[in-house]
Amino acid sequence: MFGLIFLLFLFGPLLFLPIMFSGPRQVQPSRRQVAQQQQLSFDDAYADAKRWTDRLGSQVLNISGNDAASKQAMADASERFNAASAGLSDARSVKQAMLARESALEGLHYVNAAREIMGLPAGPQLPELEGQRQAGRVTEQRTVTQQDGSQVTASPYATEQTPHYYPGGAVAGRPVPAGWYSTAWWGPAMMTGVWAASSMMFYSTMFAGMSGAASAQAFEAGGLGEGMDGAGDMGDMGDMGGGDFGDFGGGFDFGGFDF
Known about the structure:
- The protein is α+β, with helices and mostly antiparallel strands.
- The chain is built from nine helices and six strands, in the order H-H-H-H-H-H-E-E-E-E-E-E-H-H-H.
- It has helices at 2-15, 17-22, 31-62, 68-90, 94-118, 132-135, 187-192, 199-207, 216-221; strands at residues 142-145, 151-155, 164-166, 169-171, 174-176, 179-181.
- It has a four-stranded antiparallel β-sheet, sandwiched between helices. Strands 4-5 form a two-stranded antiparallel ribbon.
- Helix 3 (31-62) runs antiparallel to helix 4 and helix 3 packs parallel to helix 5.
- The longest helix is centred in the first third of the chain and has 32 residues, at 31-62.
- It is globular.
- It starts with a helix and ends in a 38-residue tail after the last helix.
């Protein structure tokens, strides 16, 4: 009897070693639990996107511009509302809902620009757009003359020559600084998801050395806002007519794409 007790005392702790070092057992979630979590994430993203889209729709219905710049800003806001609404109707994933949200937020930034021009009180502060901080902003007026003699002007302020506003951010993975422009030169890339072959030359000429704007190297590198851009995931982006992107021909040949 004494011998048995002695053996248990000597070797008993060894029996517990597998339990001591195996750690807590990992419980894998079931397929049903995973599906439920994915659905909850989608529902949350969808509800957030719908909240911003509904707010944008209310602004578009109730605000009308009173000059060229504010009218253009509200037209662009209306186009973004159409894109956000179409994106929501087609959304089947969290990413697609987030893309719709981004369109709605962009539209609300257009609305705020119009309100500022018209002297209306600014609306509540909006979340930043994807890549907005990295894209920077126009800090001085510049004009670039294209090979065909046409000109593109960028300005920190709305003028009769620069009625096209962009709130800054990533378009097809590349920066477009916040500011006012004579034409919406980013329009084709927004519609197609790719940039023209000559866009690098245009960006470098327009923004090289401009304090506050993303560098030409940042534009060339691309990858800005990855995971959010990709016009194809948005479904029907609308006819883009409200933006009136104008003529993108001329010396910079915005028709060919290689990015």
